Amino acid sequence: MADFKDRIVRAAKLDASLYEEVEADKGAMGQAVAVVILSSVAAGIGSIAQGGIKGIVIGTIGALIGWVVWAYLVFIIGTKLLPVPETKADVGQLLRTIGFSSSPGLIRVLGFIPGIGKIIFFLSSIWMLVAMVIAVRQALDYSSTLRALGVCVIGWVIQILVLTLFLYMVGGELPKAS
Fold this sequence. Notes:
By secondary structure, the protein is an all-alpha fold.
């Protein structure tokens, strides 16, 4: 099994070959799940300025819920609504690749820094979206990055709405770029 830290770095560097590698490596599921959990915890820690310990808990749970919703939506949209003839991905392949696309979210741990915390959350969201597009393109065997972008953006928008609803229900708030 490839070095975990190396895979995280390669995923954050948007290395398309890493996404192909983890798509094919059934043993990488644990690593992919660990990346999602670490990225979610980083979001929670970065949210401490938004609400102390409650911010950590809500930030972590919100990030996990957001990822699960996004992953589900991407699977449905990418394999059922917008597949290409070459699309033959199973759930495991997609979850492994998009799990690693959460790697850029690790920088959210710095979200507590006054003055730049909200910018860090905003930039990490964009970086994670770009990584997700690459992961989806590789996992779903799309030749078109634009198709992968469409799948990810549709899922991302719906996921943001679900996350906003969750945070509203628990009394939290989304970090805002300003």
